[in-house]
Structures are given as C-alpha cells and as structure tokens.
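User: Can you recover a sequence for this backbone? Please restate the input before giving your answer.

Assistant: Of course. Working from this structure:
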C-alpha cells in the first residue's frame, strides 16, 4: 500500500519530462515502468519484450541471413551520464552511419549507444546465452531512415528500430588493439556524475564491433521505457574484450550529482523477459557431419553447446 501511495505521488509530480523519472530499482524501476506513464504500457503488457536469454537449443539456421554492414567513417558525438545509464548520441549534421543487410529489409541510420554493466565482472549484460551473463553489454540503436526521420519517431512503428548487441568479456593480459570503445573509456572521467556530458571527437562505430559476421536475431523491444516492440535485435556471436581496469572506469560512474552521489550508475539492467514463442534465427552454420563441440559460442566467445543439439534444430528456411 505504501508503495502504491508513493507511486501515485510520483505520477502526480512527473508531468513534464518522463525521461527523468524512471530508474532501474525501487518504485520507478522496471516493474513500474508501465504504470508511471500510460504511454509505456508495453513495458508491463507486451509479449515481445527484451532483453531475453538466448537459449541455443531454440536456434534455427537461416541461410538467407547475410552479413550486417555498418559504415566505417568516423563521427562526432557526446557521451552523457543520464542518471539512469551512459548514452552516446551522434551530433546533428554528421554524415549518416548506415546499418544494412542481415535480417533488415530497410536501411537504418545509427543514432545512439547505450552502455550496460554490473558491479562485478560477470553481471553486466542484459542478454544472456544459455543463462551465462557477461561483464557488460553495448547496444547500438539505429532507426529506419527510409520511412522515418529519427529514432523518436521510428520507435513508435513496426520495423522502425534496429539494435546491435555486443557482449563484453573481461580479459586481462592480452594484446589490445585500438578500438572505438577505448575512445569512449578515455572520456569517462568527464561524466562521473548525472548530467555530465563530454564530446567524443572521432568515433568509428565499426571499430567497436567484434570481428565476426555471425549473429543471432529476433524481434523484440527497446530495453528502456517505453519498451516499444518495434526493434530487430542482432546479437553478435563473439564478444569484445576489455580489462578489469577498463570496467572499473565504468563502475566509478554515479547516479547522482556531486552533492548527492546516490548509488553507482551500474547494474542498469532490465530483468529478462519471456521468449513467448518468438523465433531465434541465426546465420551460424553447423556442419551436420561434425559431432564434436562447436567453438562458436565458447566462453572466450560466448558459451559451448553440443553440436548435436544444433543438428536437431537445424533447418534451412
């Protein structure tokens, strides 16, 4: 009853900008997203919600799934600590970064990146593979630029959004190559507190992506309010690597300002949602003659599973 009274009070206060009034815990957390704003009702009632657990026994091979192409030219943008998450948004007037191919029938234009992480090196991804969680997850959002003008409009309509999910694995002591993620990490000291924002002068989106053309795709929703079920998810079959020190830089970020830091910004994860009979398609081809374990979802990439279980589900669509 007390929570209900607090929720009613919260709704009466939040009349202007709803984006400031949701969190990942408490009475404004995921369980209440669909209640505090009527426009977010899909968060509570939707049947194609994200994130999900990617159960490899449900994967179906689809030989029509081609390579996903992402333009490589550098762009300018800003990273901002919103108090709920860390978000990178491209500046206006930049040359469009297009995302095409794979399961996409239209051309999509990149607009923003959301970063998710936990308080340990094994608890920060929203999507899991066979219930295995990873240190972090990077979600690259784009909008259908052939039908809509921006992400705010596109997210309201079927086929409006694409989200590229990159799982992040902790691995110290390896030879790192320069990547776009390091360009983000080097600017985190400027966004420690809520409202902090800093320019990233030249970011190559393609440099953040893992070196693989293999992925799993399904139809879902945004993982932030209002959980619009207009999103085609593409989850890459190989993680990218960062060090424990790199993860520590994310874990330093705070939800509050300098006067009231509040809790750490991490653990910004929406609980997983039911699959509800949705299809999980993949372009990861398994040779049906091979009985040994496949390495395409190894812990250093994702997770191992028996090839024989793949064979049982393997079909060409």
């Amino acid at each position: 009853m007390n929570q209900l009274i607090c929720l009613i009070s919260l709704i009466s206060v939040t009349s202007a900008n709803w984006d400031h009034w949701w969190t990942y815990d408490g009475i404004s957390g995921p369980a209440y997203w669909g209640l505090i704003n009527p426009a977010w009702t899909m968060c509570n009632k939707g049947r194609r919600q994200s994130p999900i657990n990617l159960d490899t026994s449900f994967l179906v091979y689809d030989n029509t799934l081609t390579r996903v192409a992402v333009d490589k030219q550098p762009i300018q943008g800003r990273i901002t600590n919103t108090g709920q998450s860390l978000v990178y948004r491209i500046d206006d007037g930049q040359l469009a970064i297009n995302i095409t191919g794979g399961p996409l029938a239209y051309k999509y234009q990149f607009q923003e990146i959301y970063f998710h992480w936990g308080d340990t090196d094994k608890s920060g991804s929203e999507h899991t593979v066979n219930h295995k969680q990873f240190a972090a997850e990077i979600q690259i959002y784009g909008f259908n630029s052939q039908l809509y003008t921006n992400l705010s409009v596109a997210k309201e309509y079927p086929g409006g959004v694409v989200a590229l999910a990159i799982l992040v694995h902790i691995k110290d002591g390896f030879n790192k190559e320069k990547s776009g993620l390091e360009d983000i990490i080097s600017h985190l000291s400027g966004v420690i507190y809520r409202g902090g924002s800093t320019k990233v002068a030249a970011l190559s989106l393609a440099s953040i992506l893992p070196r693989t053309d293999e992925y799993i795709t399904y139809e879902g929703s945004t993982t932030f309010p209002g959980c619009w079920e207009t999103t085609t998810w593409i989850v890459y079959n190989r993680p990218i690597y960062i060090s424990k020190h790199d993860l520590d830089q994310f874990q330093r970020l705070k939800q509050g300002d300098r006067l009231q830091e509040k809790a750490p910004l991490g653990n910004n994860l929406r609980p997983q949602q039911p699959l509800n009979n949705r299809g999980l398609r993949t372009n990861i081809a398994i040779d049906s003659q091979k009985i040994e374990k496949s390495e395409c979802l190894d812990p250093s990439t994702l997770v191992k599973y028996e090839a024989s279980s793949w064979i049982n589900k393997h079909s060409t669509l």
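That completes the design. The CA atoms of residues 251 and 277 lie 36 Å apart.
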